[in-house]
């Protein structure tokens, strides 16, 4: 039997690719779990084992992670368009192998920063690639649903791993128990990615062959043959929907980066035990993850723009609640609202990029968008640390609330609706 006979021709659609799509969802859950294993634990490790006191210095590991992940996102998009998706996915998981061991054995904070550099490379290569692969498989009709499922798996795993890591840290100590999760995640992901996941670049080529301009004339200025520089300029600055999505993504992850480094310390000011700190931190990505199961599909029906603007506005309100509170109940309400606002935004922004970018340069557009989005980790960590050092933890949260509200207004004013009108 010939190779052509053994290899089925690609078909677009979620149902037609259900098995591969499900495997990619599982792999992205493992990607999220790698972040969740450390989020509750590392700020406490910084203060209790390494004796760090300056907020800006503590947040350096978040900044290192964010910058590295942003750069890795760009290369993930470029390499996946050039060499295929699966090799990039596998390479990303190889970078994850030493991370849990470095965190377990770290004799000083420099090891933690170095581990987060490797984790940033892992997250940029693997998460970006699973996003592109899912968009490849489903085609144009169900992008919102696909991104909702993808992000729900990833951030649901962040929440679950944060909760489990907090429990393990409370009962067995900050090291090594929480980081054993990461070792198991990496082993399973390498098995799934290496043996069971198949290349999806052929699906992108199929969609490119079938691609036709929108009836309303949107995107006519974006051609198939854009080079890397043009893609960078369009996604970052010039194209209204793509550049608005990049801004909203940056501010969204600014909030996440700030919460990652700051929330456990803020919650600890009320004398909460580690388990309750872990629960509060898990509520945010937990609601975020579950909510995307609804919001991604909803954006396929009602459109992208209004969900994004309203979601950024809700994040601003949630951060104000957190900043004004000083107890478990107030913080729980704020983190739930923050998760809901993020769920409205996160998969919808990726769907916008999928709507606008041509299949021939989709991977690179997703990579550029994720560069800006994940720089938000570093901006949030550094800005939050500086403001917290100068004015206190609550002031840093208020600053993030103001930025989120401003972003909601910019999206409402500048972004157009990217969901193509349904044919009648």
From TrEMBL:
<feature type="transmembrane region" description="Helical">
    <location>
        <begin position="55"/>
        <end position="76"/>
    </location>
</feature>
<protein>
    <submittedName>
        <fullName>MFS transporter</fullName>
    </submittedName>
</protein>
<dbReference type="InterPro" id="IPR050171">
    <property type="entry name" value="MFS_Transporters"/>
</dbReference>
<feature type="transmembrane region" description="Helical">
    <location>
        <begin position="397"/>
        <end position="416"/>
    </location>
</feature>
<keyword id="KW-0812">Transmembrane</keyword>
<feature type="transmembrane region" description="Helical">
    <location>
        <begin position="179"/>
        <end position="197"/>
    </location>
</feature>
<keyword id="KW-1133">Transmembrane helix</keyword>
<feature type="transmembrane region" description="Helical">
    <location>
        <begin position="12"/>
        <end position="35"/>
    </location>
</feature>
<dbReference type="InterPro" id="IPR020846">
    <property type="entry name" value="MFS_dom"/>
</dbReference>
<feature type="transmembrane region" description="Helical">
    <location>
        <begin position="307"/>
        <end position="325"/>
    </location>
</feature>
<feature type="transmembrane region" description="Helical">
    <location>
        <begin position="111"/>
        <end position="132"/>
    </location>
</feature>
<keyword id="KW-0813">Transport</keyword>
<dbReference type="Pfam" id="PF07690">
    <property type="entry name" value="MFS_1"/>
</dbReference>
<keyword id="KW-0472">Membrane</keyword>
<feature type="transmembrane region" description="Helical">
    <location>
        <begin position="331"/>
        <end position="354"/>
    </location>
</feature>
<dbReference type="InterPro" id="IPR011701">
    <property type="entry name" value="MFS"/>
</dbReference>
<dbReference type="InterPro" id="IPR036259">
    <property type="entry name" value="MFS_trans_sf"/>
</dbReference>
<feature type="transmembrane region" description="Helical">
    <location>
        <begin position="375"/>
        <end position="391"/>
    </location>
</feature>
<keyword id="KW-1003">Cell membrane</keyword>
<dbReference type="InterPro" id="IPR005829">
    <property type="entry name" value="Sugar_transporter_CS"/>
</dbReference>
<feature type="transmembrane region" description="Helical">
    <location>
        <begin position="152"/>
        <end position="173"/>
    </location>
</feature>
<feature type="domain" description="Major facilitator superfamily (MFS) profile">
    <location>
        <begin position="21"/>
        <end position="424"/>
    </location>
</feature>
<feature type="transmembrane region" description="Helical">
    <location>
        <begin position="88"/>
        <end position="105"/>
    </location>
</feature>
């Amino acid at each position: 039997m010939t190779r052509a006979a053994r290899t089925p021709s690609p078909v677009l659609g979620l149902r037609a690719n259900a098995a591969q799509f499900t495997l990619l969802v599982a792999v992205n859950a493992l990607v999220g779990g790698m972040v969740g294993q450390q989020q509750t634990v590392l700020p406490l490790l910084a203060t209790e084992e390494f004796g760090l006191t300056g907020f800006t210095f503590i947040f350096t590991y978040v900044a290192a992670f964010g910058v590295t992940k942003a750069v890795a996102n760009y290369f993930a998009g470029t390499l996946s368009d050039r060499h295929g998706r699966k090799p990039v996915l596998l390479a990303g998981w190889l970078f994850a192998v030493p991370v849990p061991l470095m965190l377990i054995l770290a004799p000083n904070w420099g090891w933690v920063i170095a581990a987060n550099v490797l984790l940033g490379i892992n997250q940029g290569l693997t998460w970006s690639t699973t996003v592109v692969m899912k968009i490849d498989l489903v085609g144009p009709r169900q992008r919102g649903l696909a991104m909702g499922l993808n992000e729900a798996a990833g951030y649901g795993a962040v929440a679950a791993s944060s909760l489990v890591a907090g429990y393990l840290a409370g009962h067995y100590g900050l090291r090594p128990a929480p980081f054993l999760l990461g070792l198991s995640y990496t082993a399973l992901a390498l098995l799934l990615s290496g043996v069971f996941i198949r290349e999806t670049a052929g699906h992108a080529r199929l969609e490119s062959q079938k691609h036709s301009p929108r009836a309303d004339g949107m995107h006519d200025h974006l051609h198939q043959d854009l080079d890397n520089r043009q893609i960078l300029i369009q996604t970052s600055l010039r194209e209204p929907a793509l550049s608005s999505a990049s801004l909203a993504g940056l501010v969204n992850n600014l909030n996440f980066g700030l919460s990652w480094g700051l929330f456990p310390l803020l919650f600890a000011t009320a004398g909460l035990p580690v388990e309750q700190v872990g629960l509060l931190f898990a509520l945010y990505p937990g609601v975020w993850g579950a909510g995307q199961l609804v919001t991604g599909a909803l954006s396929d029906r009602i459109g992208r723009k209004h969900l994004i603007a309203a979601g950024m506005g809700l994040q601003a309100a949630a951060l104000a609640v957190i900043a004004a509170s000083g107890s478990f109940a107030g913080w729980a309400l704020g983190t739930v609202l923050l998760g809901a606002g993020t769920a409205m935004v996160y998969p919808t922004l990726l769907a916008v990029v999928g709507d606008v970018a041509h299949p021939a340069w989709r991977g690179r557009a997703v990579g550029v968008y994720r560069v800006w989005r994940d720089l938000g980790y570093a901006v949030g960590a550094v800005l939050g640390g500086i403001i917290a050092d100068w004015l206190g933890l609550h002031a840093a949260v208020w600053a993030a609330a103001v930025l989120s509200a401003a972003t909601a207004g910019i999206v409402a004013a500048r972004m157009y609706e990217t969901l193509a009108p349904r044919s009648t």
